[in-house]
Amino acid sequence: KQEVTQIPAALSVPEGENLVLNCSFTDSAIYNLQWFRQDPGKGLTSLLLIQSSQREQTSGRLNASLDKSSGRSTLYIAASQPGDSATYLCAVRWGGGADGLTFGKGTHLIIQP
Amino acid sequence: DAEITQSPRHKITETGRQVTLACHQTWNHNNMFWYRQDLGHGLRLIHYSYGVQDTNKGEVSDGYSVSRSNTEDLPLTLESAASSQTSVYFCASSESGTGGRSAFFGQGTRLTVV
Question: Which of A4, A95, B4, B113 sits CB 3.0–4.6 Å from B25 for a disulfide?
């Protein structure tokens, strides 16, 4: 079964730290991988999309990497701020034509002021 | 700005009733999706559509149906609501085409079946 796993499930760090969130997937034949942010009671906001042919994508203080051969992606957040507190979700679109996304269960991130 | 809107935002219904959740997008995207989000399971795909008159079953489609009569709307119907369908439902859309596109999500509908 194609699955996506995120570790850790929760993380609490002081403001200003650089941090890494991890995502692993069971099948290397992916179309793309997307990182989302979800605030409590809200919808999902797309942060970064990495195509299967790419190794990384950057947006501001966020950098996402993709290693298909090892089935891993990481989301790096530089100089964390309290406003970064949210749940971060990793989602994979598998190869083979299925257009829906398979999500990990998320990492709940708290940045302490 | 283009957006994707879900209604209602909150709904309480009784077991056995038929319920329809609305999803409307102004992105002009061909692809639309419905997911449910539950503690311990994350988001799971219910149904999806690649365009008008096209619908497909996802991972957890039992007890749900969708229809696509135009590009903008993909309503989700619970034929006979069950307590197990208490969840938060999210609608999403994306452009069609190979290579993948970003998916855009609505704000969600919190459904409680009592």
Answer: B4
Q: Name chain A contacts of B94, Cβ cutoff 8 Å.
A: 99
Q: A74, exposed or middle or buried, with CB in 10 Å at 0-12, 13-18, 19+?
A: middle
DSSP 8-state secondary structure symbol assigned to residue B96: -
Whole-number Cα distances in Å, B19 to B11, B14, B66: 9, 9, 12
* Residue in the structure block whose two tokens are 């990793």: A90
- Kindly list the residues of chain B whose beta carbon comes within 8 Å of any beta carbon in chain A: 31, 33, 35, 40-45, 48, 50, 58-59, 90, 92, 94, 99-108
Inform me whether the pLDDT recorded for B47 exceeds 90.
yes
Cβ pair B100:A105 closer than 8 A: no
Percent residues over pLDDT 70 in chain B: 96
pLDDT for B59-78, tens place per residue?
999 999 999 999 999 999 99
Residue A8 to residue A63: CA distance in whole angstroms: 18
User: Quick check: A52 pLDDT over 60?
Assistant: yes
DSSP A105: -
DSSP symbols for B52-65 = TT--EE-TT-TTEE
Could A99 and B43 be called an inter-chain contact, meaning their C-beta atoms sit closer than 8 Å? no
User: CB-hemisphere CA count at 13 Å for B6?
Assistant: 26
Contact A54/B at CB under 8 A: no
Identity of residue A51: Q
